[in-house]
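Q: what does this look like with pyridoxal-5'-phosphate bound?
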Amino acid sequence: MPIPLLDLNAQYASIKEEVNAAIQEVLESQQFIMGETVRDFESEIAKYIGVDYAYGCASGSDALLLALMALDIGPGDYVITSPFTFFATGGAISRLGAFPIFIDIDPGTYTLDPVKLSALLKGESPLAERLNLSARDIKAIIPVHLYGQMADMDPIMKLAKEYNLRVIEDAAQAIGSTYQGRAAGTFGDFGCFSFFPSKNLGAYGDAGLITVKDPALAEKVNILRLHGAKPKYHHSLVGINSRLDTIQAAILRVKLGYLEEWTAQRIGVAQRYRQLFTEAGIVTEDWECCSGSCKESGGDECSLTEEQVLLPVERSGTNHRHVYHQYTIRVKNRDSLVKHLKKHGIGNAVYYPIPLHTQQCFSELGYTEKDCPAAICASKQVLSLPMYPQMKEEQIREVVEAVAGFIKR
Ligand SMILES: *Cc1c(COP(=O)(O)O)cnc(C)c1O
């Protein structure tokens, strides 16, 4: 039996009656835009995350856009983010006419490297000099909590404060994850969440959420998502149409009730992967290799060998929770492993094969591969393996056996 990267059928089967009833209820009410269901979901998820203000919107991409719009970011402004993320993070910045500053990742956690961030802000990096950043208006930082693990928020928040920068957390992959016991979305001025169907809390279509810390900015976001109108037909701002669909809110209300259980199961699957990979004798803990030579060379001199698999590096300490949106390993011959897994019917995916700083649409910004070599190296070696709450022991074993079979071939 093939093992998919993600099995949403298994999840739907387990909640089918509840979800169908929730959808039916919306159909009977004929209230498809906003309304009580959306408000109830917003207050329930605000409580779950631990924030005062949470607003549904049409997608995670729109959540990022709304946060930047609420800060009046536009042409002439510079916004710092990671190049190793889904396109939407960088796209939102560019769409508003602002300039994305891509800072390299920490190769262990694949999130924004605070050391590189500090160097850039101090004007001590080649990129800072080339972009003449001391003369620029840097407005905000968008740290991305990738694969379900949070960025290194302590140093990032400290630097943001020191340089008077706003923080927008891209928490699209990280609902329920924590850093020092605090949840994703509670650190920055904004938290942006996605309920794209494959995310840990997935809707049955596009959907998103934005959390806001400051009450005045919260009200601005609330208005911006409704074309800037309040009351209706009185436009104080030029906003967009980005609401959370009421049917999606009804579905998400049901699913939110299971999120903690599903997250615990994901963590269980990750632990099982680690045990089985370790028993197979192919694991290296030496991810430092990637912060050494790869950092400079973009992987050409990577010391990871063909006999090794690098497992996800969890932030040490008990107060950090990785919610395993993806279970992403690192191998030297990634593209051959992809072919091998396909042959064995095992789902897999590369997130992300092309870092944003080298995307064609950003070529005018003048970045080169060398600006973010750790991201380049990661893009050649990462591979996400099947991961979903309902994964069975036999399936986890089969995935590990297939990877081990390739490594030991
Ligand atoms: C999914 C995702 C988004 C965008 O969310 P959509 O709901 O698909 O628009 C943004 N950032 C990251 C890191 C994501 O994974």
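Residues 59-61, 85-86, 88-89, 144, 170, 172-173, 194, 196, 206, 208 surround pyridoxal-5'-phosphate (CB under 6 Å). The first helix runs from residue 8 to 29.
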